[in-house]
Each structure stands twice: as structure tokens, then as C-alpha cells.
Amino acid sequence: MKMGSYLTTNGTLPHPQGKDYQGLPKDYLNMCQFVGVSNTGFKESSGTTSTEKGKRYAIRHFVKAMVDMSHEVERRMGKRIDGISFGMSDDDRKNVEAVNTTSSS
Questions:
Q1: Fewer CB within 10 A of the end CB, N or C, for the chain?
Q2: Cα torsion for 100, 91, 57, 2, to the nearest 10°?
Q3: What span, in angstroms and rounded, lies between the C-alpha atoms of 44 and 46?
Q4: pTM score
Q5: Domain map of the chain by residue range?
Q6: Are 79 and 7 in contact (CB under 8 A)?
Q7: Given its phi and psi angles, is residue 93 left (phi above 0), alpha (psi -120 to 50 degrees) or beta?
């Protein structure tokens, strides 16, 4: 599962001082997480027993990392993040259900 996100400030992407927008694709890819939720090693390290539980585990950790990052941006730049957009490479029905289950728990 690939999960990506971007943070917005007042509805726009934050623009770090001294950085041009050409670096944004690389920055975006650096924020992505690629998680092999059906991989035996991942299941062992995360303590999950099924792919669906692995998806929920990965989503929770990814969202926490993005929220933590937004707090760091606010601390460093003095800009409050007003939105986080989240997406996955495979938005099949089971992934949507995993997101809905994760966000309501």
C-alpha cells in the first residue's frame, strides 16, 4: 500500500523560504510511505495478523506521522496547517473500509 499526503496552509501548499516549487515532487515522494501490509516481516513487526489489520495499522501510523509533521511545521515556521489530504495507491472497497474503520475508532 502506498500512502501519500500533503499539508496545506490557508488552502495552499506551504512554501519554505529559499526553496522553489520544482523541489515539491521530491518533497512529496519523501513524505510517502510504502508499506507491504501482506509481508510476513511487516506482520511480525507490527503484530498484525491480517492484511486488513495491517492496513489499519499502517494508516494510523501514517496519519500520526503527518499530524506530528504539521505540528513541527507550525513550530518551525509559525504557520498553522489547516488541512491534510490523504490518499492511497489502491482505493479498492477493502481499503476504503479500512480507512473508515480506522477514522471512526
A1: C
A2: -150
A3: 6
A4: 0.65
A5: 2-11+20-104
A6: no
A7: alpha
pLDDT of residue 47: 95
- Over residues 2-53, the pLDDT tens digits come to 555 555 545 555 555 555 566 667 777 777 788 888 899 999 999 999 888 8
Instruction: List Cβ neighbours of 51 (8 Å cut-off, separation of 6 or more).
Output: 37, 38
Residue-wise pLDDT tens digits, 51-69: 888 888 988 888 888 888 8
Q: Are 65 and 7 in contact (CB under 8 A)?
A: no
Closest CA to 3 of 34, 38, 37: 34
